[in-house]
Design goal:
single chain; alpha+beta; Immunoglobulin-like; 3 helices
Length: about 160
């Protein structure tokens, strides 16, 4: 129960301040809805966040008015080296992410769908990137991820 409360508080701090509706906490993943935007997302922190300039997280978000669903977004604790991307690994599948600074995302909607499918079927994932401080690896437990993704999708279906 304590772990759940800590996760929920951390997830709320990880995203920009706005009115949010909690849609539930599922193991290490939370689901939220920002009714003003509107957007919904599933979000988790890495198992061990480590030190860095930012609070790292993995999120899968939807913006129904924009026609964007299940978009993968990773925030690293340090910025990637210029010209470098990140690699997201789920089981034996590797996905090359693009981005700048501490933000990484899938290349397109097809890749988003493949990543979300892998997350739903996986047990763990890790994100690796090269930063000015060297190689960075964040590990995520995927228990509860599918339920949080579903809760976020339902939250935006209203």
């Amino acid at each position: 129960m304590r772990r759940t409360a800590i996760l929920l508080a951390t997830c709320l701090l990880a995203m920009p301040a706005a009115a949010r509706d909690s849609l539930g906490v599922y193991e290490r993943w939370g689901a939220f809805r920002d009714p003003d935007t509107p957007r919904c997302y599933a979000i988790a922190r890495p198992e061990r966040a480590g030190r860095g300039e930012w609070q790292p997280f993995a999120s899968i978000g939807s913006w129904p008015r924009r026609g964007v669903f299940n978009q993968v977004h990773i925030r690293l604790r340090r910025p990637m080296r210029d010209g470098e991307g990140a690699t997201l690994i789920v089981g034996d599948r590797e996905f090359e992410l693009v981005g700048r600074g501490p933000a990484a995302r899938a290349r397109d909607r097809t890749e988003d769908a493949a990543i979300v499918a892998a997350i739903r079927a996986g047990q763990a994932m890790r994100v690796q990137a090269l930063t000015s401080a060297g190689r960075l690896t964040d590990r995520y437990d995927l228990d509860g991820a599918a339920s949080a993704i579903d809760a976020a999708a339902l939250g935006c279906a209203r």
